[in-house]
Structure formats: C-alpha cells, structure tokens
Amino acid sequence: MRKLIVVKQLSLKYSDELAEILSTDKKLHKELSPNSKLTTINGLEYVQGCTKWETKKRGRCFAIVKNDRAVGSISFVHKDDEIASLGYWIKSDAWGQGICTQAFKQMLLIVKELGYASVTASILKENIASKKIWEKYNATFKEDDERYYPIIKLS
Are 124 and 89 in contact (CB under 8 A)? Predict the structure, then answer.
C-alpha cells in the first residue's frame, strides 16, 4: 500500500525540510540546476524566496508531504485567467514511487477550485518521468526541439 501523500501549505517546518533537501541532494540539484553550484539555504530563506516568487509570478508554492515530512514542492503560476502552469520536484531518493503523481492529482483539484480551466508546463525532453505524469491525465502535447508543452483541460 502506498503512503499517503498530501499537498500542504508551506510552514516553517516544511520550509526547513525543503531547504535541507535543496542544500544536500546533489542528484536533484543536477536535474534542477545543472549549471550552478550547490549552495546551502535555510528554511527562512526558502520561504522568503517562495513568497517573492509567488508575488512576482502570481503563483502559490506548496509542500509535498509524506509521513508529515516534506519530500518536495509543487507550485503553480498564473499564465492567464484560464491557464495555470505547474511545476514540481521531489528529493531524489523518492523518485519512482508515485509521489509526484499523487501530488499532481491534488494540485489539479486546487487549481480547478481557484477557477482555472487548464494547466500546462514546460518539460525538458530528457525528463521522461514528468512527461509520463501528464500522460496519465490525458494531456495533449506541443513540442519544440528541447521541450514538451502539455495541456490538460480541467472541466
């Protein structure tokens, strides 16, 4: 049986846990920021960065929580009045366990409740796992040489 995954509002506790992951998970860092040096941040810096990002992008950041511990983050940004763009990451030792799929399903409900009609993203073509999540929810895809651009209608 799978462990229950819950998408929760950021708290300082979850921000501390997410900052620790981002500061220590070399494999995740290579996927998220391959051309930058791994740096250490604390929970306060993490939550402040999210707050700034939310204001700038008209979005919201959430923690992906398993057994009351943050294992990743999922967020959305406002593209227009109809479309939200989703993004997510989880710590590398949790990859392949269905955690993002469960969090993704919850995020679809959240953005639908906020009035969005569709969701989209920008996925690097090497990120097959992320593309598979979108396929599970019958996304249609546009693409260019480097990226997939899925869209899911929420109605």
Answer: no
